[in-house]
UniProtKB/TrEMBL annotation, chains A, B:
Family as reported in the entry's similarity comment: Belongs to the tRNA pseudouridine synthase TruA family.
Subunit: Homodimer.
Keywords: Isomerase, tRNA processing
Known catalytic reactions: uridine(38/39/40) in tRNA = pseudouridine(38/39/40) in tRNA
Pfam families for this protein: PseudoU_synth_1
PANTHER family: PSEUDOURIDYLATE SYNTHASE, TRNA PSEUDOURIDINE SYNTHASE-LIKE 1
Taxonomic source organism: Soonwooa buanensis
Pseudouridine synthase I TruA alpha/beta domain residues: 148-242
InterPro entries hit by this protein: PsdUridine_synth_cat_dom_sf, PsdUridine_synth_TruA, PsdUridine_synth_TruA_a/b_dom, PsdUridine_synth_TruA_C, TruA/RsuA/RluB/E/F_N
Chain residues that bind substrate: Y108
First and last residue of the signal peptide: none
Active site annotation, chain numbering: D51 (nucleophile)
Protein name: tRNA pseudouridine synthase A
Amino acid sequence: MRYFIEFAYDGAPYFGYQVQPNQISVQETLEKALSTLLREPIKTTGAGRTDTGVHAKKIFAHFDFEGELMDNLVHRLNSFLPESIAVKRIFEVKSEAHARFSATYRTYNYFISTEKDPFTKDLAWQLWRKKLDVDAMNEACKILFEYSDFTSFAKLHTDNKTNICKIYQANWEQNGSLLKFTVSADRFLRNMVRAIVGTMIEVGDGKLKPEDMHRVITEQHRNSAGTSAPAHGLFLVDVGYDFLD
Amino acid sequence: MRYFIEFAYDGAPYFGYQVQPNQISVQETLEKALSTLLREPIKTTGAGRTDTGVHAKKIFAHFDFEGELMDNLVHRLNSFLPESIAVKRIFEVKSEAHARFSATYRTYNYFISTEKDPFTKDLAWQLWRKKLDVDAMNEACKILFEYSDFTSFAKLHTDNKTNICKIYQANWEQNGSLLKFTVSADRFLRNMVRAIVGTMIEVGDGKLKPEDMHRVITEQHRNSAGTSAPAHGLFLVDVGYDFLD
């Protein structure tokens, strides 16, 4: 039987989502907990592979297991796992459902603190020294929808076959002292959201004009875009599947 | 001239508010920043003396300074101070205004996470393993108003002349997965809020009945109350002065 597991994690203590030799990853920590409680080696496939320090508020993984799941497995997993990983639910899916390839969209948030705030320092980029023009940043967002090749926002030397993505949503919203970027797409390239945010900050800061986004994107080179925003402000917040509401 | 400084801090990196020999305190960190920017030794008097690990969202201190304050002092202080301390404003007050003795009330919040949440682990007590009866805890709150001697919630062997406090507000409120305790009083004894929260959790958990609060309080002994709740869930959130709105 195939199961989906929905969970959340604080990325700070991990060297990214995916299993890495000699480093602690979210995936390894989760698989160790599942294997211990289900008493057989469990391999998981995650919906995405977040980088070191990136968080997830809602992410899924799938695993196969033929035995019977105990009723209180979610509670027992949460007791076993460290405070930085929380399991929300585990449910059976069709055998062809795939956490990564069946996903129809992914949504990320990036948080920026526009006032100095000791309580968001680990979960938002502290940019209170800058005065950001949020309207200009939202103008820049609109330009993203006109393109599909995002090579300029892709990490160099990755093994992606294509840098084509379909962006469904992109906007900035100010809530109190938190400035939130929401971006949805069918897929994301490695480092893409952080590169977009870094470039948008240059727009907000006046270094770039919103219409410079055309040039940044069409040049199709990472050097055309801004520096990557730091990992600790980035959250994977949703993954969509046709078979889930 | 006397000035009030309003600020906030994450208590995690500090050995409490007050200057301690050989330990880093909030007060020492603040005084060092003020003294550097104002180019003379500045001593501050805080509105309260929070314990190690306790946070403040809104606290005041006063200091005396005869020179002229630079316009951008708040911004420069925030640049100088670590991420864990944020200065909100600095304003002149009458020379007899005293951050500690002029305060008419103080308000604390205590946060409890009733679902496992990686993102509140440093700012709320993670009690998702327990099923808490919030109605019973609110019943217990009402009993606090009937008393004024809170010796049972006071740390033993302190040099308090009196353990008499007037409680103005006390209630529990569930917002999503966060359970928030709000308590206001004219003054608080050392460790008092954490001892009240620890006792209330025993009520929520069914170990005590709400009406047991009468006995806990009238026995006037710390052993009658529950264990102290951990420091990281506690926030000083307001201090009232007649001359501020």
